[in-house]
């Protein structure tokens, strides 16, 4: 019986039957595309404008599905699996679910082009002039499975201590975020722009360390913004000579700030040769050696006292000692820098060394620029608690390389839309507690969700009349259930 059924399924259709099947598929595709176009046109103007800008990355059909997935991901509560995202809008999602899954697994589009469009949007609307302040760091999201692409065993900095090292199986993402001042908050907000996957060392391919990936991302930004100066700050894991040397080769366009070493090898610049003088052998690469920063600090009798901006938006009294020199590494050349030793007068923070490739910077500029880097750690925590960074389930190479970077971009999209909201939509939304002064990302996400539900989903013809019949208290109760605080 099985062979007979198989032969029946293998029978070739006639020419007329094939033509009828194609016509049915074409009609169905047109109906789905018309419905998706109507949903796209009914989006509020700021959201539609942003989707149109990002949609230039895709073909028309894929752009419509990507825009719908973007809005559904903002409205989704809980896991960010594709099934849960599609379940949020329910009947509004027309077409087979596989057509939405193939957006990440099979469709041809460039993540770099998508990132460039989003970066240009943020630079034009939130940082229209002046230098772009960037923060570079990495984060690990757990993703288990025997066939997960790019998975590795990485150290978990959150659960690790000085005496115990915790490891997690998953992905390590190197992230470059732009730090922006927003009118409703005192602290800087770190909006992810570029994301690169760090893959563990394996035979048969070139291995790139996290500092090398950050260097690659900075070179991309230098190419994208030839007229904008960049200032990048990163923690001690990225305090490498290669990154300092990259900034030294572009002194007018890139400034790098990071941790420094107490025993750093600093030298004077190479002295100019006297006219007519001759020296055998190859030219000198460095001048006389300078005392290490730790030696200078130990010998200093007077320390400058400053009041600077500190972690979390507060201020702190500190004592500093500064110096300059040329950082040298064999075969890599010199990089001019200014180092700063910082002592917290309150005693709650350990002594640290920072450096910058901008030799003319003051100690206050170096400290306040570096302490602003901590906002990217806040972004990583909010992405886990609010956007479900560790709840994705894709395992193939295209899906892994696209879904998590799109989630990082979703954080930026939520903040951009929150800034574009009318003031009346931002007031009174969020969780209040005694002493709260600034809006949080949880408040921003709740406001954007309520705005999309009211201005988009409930404004669809057929939904608006039913929603307007509800009493005002019941409307608020319904929206509170649809947009809970994470």
Description:
The protein folds into 3 domains: 35-108, no CATH class; 111-271 and 285-386, Alpha-Beta Complex (Transposase Inhibitor Protein From Tn5, Chain A, domain 1), CATH 3.90.350; 428-486, no CATH class. α13 (397-420) packs across α15. The chain has 17 helices and 11 strands. A hairpin with a 6-residue loop joins β3 and β4. The chain is globular, with a radius of gyration of 27 Å. 42% of the residues lie in helices and 19% in strands. With 486 residues, it is of the alpha+beta class. Strands 1, 2, 3, 4, 5, 6, 7, 8, 9, 10 and 11 form an 11-stranded mixed beta sheet that branches.
Tell me the series of helices and strands, N- to C-terminal: HHHHHHHEEEEHEHEEHEEEEHHHHHHH
CATH architecture of the largest domain: Alpha-Beta Complex
Give the uncertain stretches in residue-range form. none
What's the helical proportion of residues? 40-55%
Distance between the termini: 56 Å
The global form is globular
CATH class of the largest domain: Alpha Beta
Radius of gyration: 27 Å
> How much of the polypeptide forms β-strand, as a percent range?
15-25%
Total helical segments:
17
Tell me the name of the CATH homologous superfamily of the largest domain: Transposase Inhibitor Protein From Tn5, Chain A, domain 1
**Given the helix and strand composition, which structural class is it?**
alpha+beta
Task: Work out the count of structural domains.
Answer: 3
Tally of DSSP β-strands: 11
Mean pLDDT: 89
Per CATH, what is the topology of the largest domain? Transposase Inhibitor Protein From Tn5, Chain A, domain 1
- Main sheet attributes: strand count, strand direction, barrel closure: 11 strands, mixed
């Amino acid at each position: 019986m099985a062979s007979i059924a198989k032969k029946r399924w293998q029978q070739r259709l006639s020419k007329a039957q094939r033509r009828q099947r194609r016509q049915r598929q074409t009609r169905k595709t047109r109906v789905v595309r018309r419905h998706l176009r109507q949903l796209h046109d009914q989006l509020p103007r700021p959201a539609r404008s942003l989707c149109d800008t990002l949609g230039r990355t895709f073909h028309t059909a894929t752009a419509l599905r990507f825009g719908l997935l973007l809005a559904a991901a903002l409205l989704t509560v809980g896991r960010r699996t594709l099934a849960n995202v599609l379940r949020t809008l329910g009947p509004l999602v027309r077409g087979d679910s596989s057509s939405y899954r193939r957006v990440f697994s099979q469709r041809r589009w460039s993540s770099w082009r998508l990132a460039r469009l989003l970066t240009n949007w943020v630079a034009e609307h939130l940082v229209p002039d002046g230098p772009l302040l960037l923060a570079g760091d990495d984060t690990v999201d757990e993703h288990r499975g025997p066939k997960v692409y790019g998975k590795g065993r990485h150290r978990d900095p959150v659960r690790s201590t000085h005496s115990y090292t915790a490891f997690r199986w998953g992905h390590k993402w190197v992230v470059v975020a732009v730090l922006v001042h927003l009118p409703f908050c005192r602290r800087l907000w770190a909006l992810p722009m570029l994301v690169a996957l760090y893959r563990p060392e394996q035979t048969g391919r070139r291995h790139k360390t996290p500092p090398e990936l950050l260097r690659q991302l900075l070179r991309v930004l230098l190419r994208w913004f030839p007229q904008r100066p960049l200032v990048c700050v990163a923690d001690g894991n990225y305090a490498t000579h290669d990154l300092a040397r990259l900034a030294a080769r572009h002194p007018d366009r890139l400034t790098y700030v990071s941790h420094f070493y107490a025993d750093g090898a600093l030298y004077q610049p190479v002295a100019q040769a006297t006219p007519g003088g001759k020296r055998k052998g190859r030219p000198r690469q460095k001048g006389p050696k300078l005392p290490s920063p730790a030696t200078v600090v130990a010998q200093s009798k007077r320390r400058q006292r400053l009041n600077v901006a500190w972690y979390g938006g507060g201020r702190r009294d500190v004592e500093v000692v500064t110096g300059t020199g040329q950082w040298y590494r064999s075969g890599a050349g010199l990089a001019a820098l200014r180092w700063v030793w910082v002592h917290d007068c309150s005693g709650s923070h350990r002594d640290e060394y920072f450096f910058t490739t901008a030799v003319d910077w003051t100690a206050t500029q170096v400290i306040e620029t570096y302490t602003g880097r901590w906002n990217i750690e806040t972004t990583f925590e909010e992405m886990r608690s609010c956007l479900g960074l560790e709840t994705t389930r894709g395992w193939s190479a295209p899906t892994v390389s696209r879904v998590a970077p799109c989630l990082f971009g979703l954080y930026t999209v939520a903040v951009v839309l929150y800034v574009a909201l009318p003031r009346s939509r931002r007031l009174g939304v969020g969780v209040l507690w005694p002493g709260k002064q600034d809006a949080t990302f949880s408040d921003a996400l709740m406001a954007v969700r309520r705005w999309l539900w009211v201005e988009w989903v409930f404004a669809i013809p057929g939904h608006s009349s039913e929603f307007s019949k509800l009493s005002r208290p019941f409307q608020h109760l319904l929206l509170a259930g649809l947009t809970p605080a994470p």
